[in-house]
Amino acid sequence: MPPAAIWMDGLIQSCIYMTMAFGMVLVFSILGILNWAHGQFYMFGGIVVYYAVAAAGIPFPISLLISAVAVGVLGMLVEKLIIERVNVPIYGPLYVGVATISLIFFFEGAASMLFGMQDKGLSMVYPGVLDLGVFSVSYQKIGVVIFTVIVMVAMYIVLNLTKIGLAIRAVSQEPVAANLYGISVKRISVIVMGIGCAMAAMAGSIMAPIYPVNPFMGRIPMIMSLLAIVIGGIGSLTGAIVGGLILGFLNSVIAYKISYFSEVVLFILVILILLVRPQGLFGASLK
Amino acid sequence: MLELKNIWVYYDKNPAVRDLSLTVNKGDFVTILGANGAGKSTTLNAICGVVKVKKGKGEIFFKGKKINGLRPPKIAAMGIIQVPEGRKLWPLLTVQENLKLGAYLQKDRQKMKQNMEKVLTLFPDLKDKLHAKGRMLSGGQQQMAAIARGLMADPEVLLFDEPSLGLSPLLRQHLAEIIKEISQHGTTIVLVEQNARLGLMLASYGYVIENGELKLQGKTSDLLKDENVKKAYLGV
Ligand SMILES: Nc1ncnc2c1ncn2[C@@H]1O[C@H](COP(=O)(O)OP(=O)(O)OP(=O)(O)O)[C@@H](O)[C@H]1O
Ligand SMILES: [Mg+2]
Question: What b/e sequence results for A65-78 when a residue is b if at least 16 CB atoms lie within 10 Å of its CB, and e otherwise?
């Protein structure tokens, strides 16, 4: 058995991948496209929080909110100005793919120019550790887990119990009927892209005190969340959560067991899972 | 109140509706008849903005305002609501959620609740199904729920696209009575039907389209007596 710290590290990674994957699947279920620059929204989340806390001295929780809103708005702009224009029938997903992959370079380049390429570290916002005898956990990490649970519960409530949440699900299930009853598919697309990117930003922000912040920090979480989505079943929100959970632990434990080639082993495992269940754990049962 | 003036609708380069003109006055009950592929659904979708009227080839007016070119949610907000072909309920939402979203544009919660009660007295069968997902309903129940959702929107004009499709004769009869009742409450109705007899019995004015073109129009009492209509649509 790997030591408790490895499992804890896995859980932290799970939290990031879950939140990232959830946002990506939400966008997919409405717009029918993958936002390949999702990881860069995660990165902006980390950078915004870093500057808000380290430069402006704004308290961490408020900085986190600012970051989510700012990056969410950026996501909405990207939807309105780019995705909406290229998401045409038939070839739309391809064009959007090309456009958002270009955005990866644009955003990473922009971040490098504006903030520099070097790692920045935010000191622990909640220092101290919780000693449980067998092992100890930093309050910061406990904070990450609690925050992720809150975000997930909040998303559940929004999607199931609010008018806008029901409208979002209606659009994903039967967009024509939604339009006929006054629910603008266009407007919902912008809103959902905002929510999805805000979730990526929250993941990036909550990690800023734990992992280094730099313009390229979004790449690995993006790949991992993609794998999480594939394992969970493309289009399933539950799948995104479970897939994220699995990926986090897998990644952490494999890296502990075999430090070299750990990615190779990870990919082989993912392929094995898909051989058994090509549609992912939660099928393509959309919405 | 609703006026289509010489509209043309194309799918790619093929016209599905050609030079169609049609008038619906406030409180009217109008039916549109035609065979499969005649262009009935396309006409309703053109009114709702789901498909576009070809630029420069026709206009649609609602209460004197030009509405072709507007997006569907805008048109819905003006009071034109369609109960679409194939029901198109939101399959994974409950019946109650489907009904609530039917009233998406209704800002007045009190009014929404009143409408919900009204609709449930009209469709008492739905009361037991409020918490069932849309896709768990039988075909007939889905049709009831789809019409109920339409009524929740509190429309000025209600467009029905083949509501009787797939219903048993008994249920069809029940449906006919309900639609009649909706009309008697003052809602303007456009009913598209392949079941010509049903359409002609319910409506007061009818249009017959063939190949996207208007072939015949008139009072339904006259259409019922028309030899061509009898032969082609009533099977007499
Ligand atoms: N989405 C589409 N793309 C291309 N052609 C279409 C499309 N929808 C309809 N058509 C064509 O337009 C014509 C009219 O179709 P429409 O659906 O309006 O007929 P309809 O009168 O409603 O028929 P039905 O009674 O079978 O529902 C048909 O020839 C059909 O093939
Ligand atoms: Mg039709």
Answer: bbbbebbbebbbeb
Q: Examine residue B55 and state whether it is found in any structural domain, yes or no.
A: yes
CA distance B189 to A200: 47
For residue A180, list chain B residues with Cβ-Cβ distance below 8 A: 48, 50, 72, 76, 81-82, 84, 88
The number of distinct structural domains making up chain B is 1
Evaluate whether residue B201 is within a structural domain: yes
pLDDT tens per residue across span A77-121 = 999 999 999 999 889 999 999 999 999 999 999 999 999 999 998
Give the number of other Cβ atoms within 10 Å of residue A147's Cβ. Answer: 18
Q: Record the tokens describing residue A70, joined without a space.
A: 């700012």
User: Binning pLDDT at 50, 70 and 90, where does residue A126 land?
Assistant: confident
- Which residues have C-beta within 8 Å of that of residue B146, sequence separation ≥ 6? B83, B84, B87, B88, B89, B163
Which H helix or E strand runs over A252? Answer: helix A237-257
ipTM: 0.94
Show residues of chain B in contact with A176, CB under 8 Å: 50, 84, 88
Q: Is residue B36 in contact with ligand 1, taking CB distance under 6 Å?
A: yes
Tell me which amino acid residue B98 is. N
Which one-letter DSSP state was computed for residue B68?
A: B
**What backbone torsions phi and psi does residue A221 show, to the nearest 5 degrees?**
-55, -35
The CATH number covering residue B8 comes to 3.40.50.300
The domain locations on chain A are 21-214
At A73-85, the pLDDT tens digits run 999 999 999 999 9
Residue B144 included in any domain:
no
Domain that holds residue B21: 1-79+157-167+190-236
Best B90, B100, B109, B136 member to test A by mutation, with max A CBs in 10 Å, is B90
pTM of the model: 0.93
State how far residue B150 is from chain A, nearest Cα, in angstroms: 8
Q: How far is B81 from chain A (nearest CA, A)?
A: 7
Burial bucket for residue B118 (CB in 10 Å: 0-12, 13-18, 19+) = middle
C-alpha distance from B27 to closest chain A C-alpha (Å): 21
Has residue B32 been placed in a domain?
yes
Distance from the alpha carbon of residue B64 to the mean position of ligand 1, in angstroms: 28
